[in-house]
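Problem: given the chain below (308 residues), write out its structure.
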Amino acid sequence: MGFFFTGYTAQTVLAFIALVAVLIILNEVTRRSKIASIICYGVLPAIILIGIIAGFISSPSTKTWFGTVKTFSALAGVWGFLIIRYTKAGNTKFANYFPVAILAINIIEAITRDIEVFNTYKTMTVDEAGLTMLGGPWNVMNAIAGVFLLLTLTGWVGIKVSNTKSKDMVWADQLWFWILAYDFWNVAYCYNCISTRAMYSGVSLIVACTIAEFVFKKGVWLQHRAQTLALFGMFSLAFDYSANPMFGIEASMNPKAWTVLSAIALIVNFAVFVYEIYVICKYKRNPLKDEMYTHLKAYDANLKANNL
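Solution.
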């Protein structure tokens, strides 16, 4: 039995790898093609929404408000980013403020859910979506980590469109340490609040967008994140994947594991916050007006990757 997860078999491990690969491939295809993006993020979700309203589609993710809201907020982000990338809005303040607003809203949604789980599930309970839930101090720790994550959102004033064929939305100030802090926080959130399906709704998504950022295209993490989240959200709304034995890796439901993961997320996010304060003091930068990390090589690498 694993400390964090159980259910590892050759079949489930291969299914996990396949899921990550499909997310990365679809992200790359839609990143490079406006037509593919319109079909994937416009036509397909419209069909899914009609199916949900008509009652033809009913997966566990449609049973609670969060699954549907999270999917369509991710899609709203994708469409906002497409507008920035392919219209004149990319040269306006919309390109600066919309991305940080949609990301902050998504983080706040998750913080709210962590607190909701803490207040609601005093004993281990299976909710209406089939998720095994237990509130505890881990929810509070991760909610605090989420607050630090919000406080370390910087450099949105420098968001711009790449000078490449794919016309990506570049947030050069969103560097590897913030991305990793987000990764730990988000995996901990999924482990706390979507525990039964955390390997897929959390780990697989984080692995996919992180690989997309560090292997395929630097400087566009938020675009990768929104697209892979939207893709997986539509998949989870349309199909009850958790009923398939191929997707049988589940959280261990061990309170010690919940505690350890949330503690790591809190420590890492606090460390990034402390570094931000250090940069503010040393370089006299304003996080509401300036890009914070222009002195780092990783910032220059993000610009170079996008011909900026």
